[in-house]
């Protein structure tokens, strides 16, 4: 029962949507010369 309360509370904070965290690892700050090494996307469903 408490798990449902947590899920609803998190969803209510973001206008009904669950938040997404995007993490990008690069080889530098210049998009023209530095490579994109890794990207990740995490969905926060359980708080």
From TrEMBL:
Enzyme Commission number, as recorded: 3.1.13.-
Molecular function terms from GO: hydrolase activity
SUPFAM superfamilies in the cross-refs: Ribonuclease H-like
Protein keywords: Hydrolase
Keyword field contains Hydrolase: yes
InterPro entries, per the entry: RNaseH-like_sf
Domain of life: Bacteria
Protein name in the entry: Ribonuclease T
Species for this entry: Raoultella terrigena (Klebsiella terrigena)
């Amino acid at each position: 029962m408490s798990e449902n309360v947590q899920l609803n509370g998190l969803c209510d904070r973001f206008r009904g949507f669950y938040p997404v965290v995007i993490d990008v690892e690069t080889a530098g700050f210049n998009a023209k010369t530095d490579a994109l090494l890794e990207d990740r996307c995490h969905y926060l469903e359980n708080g």
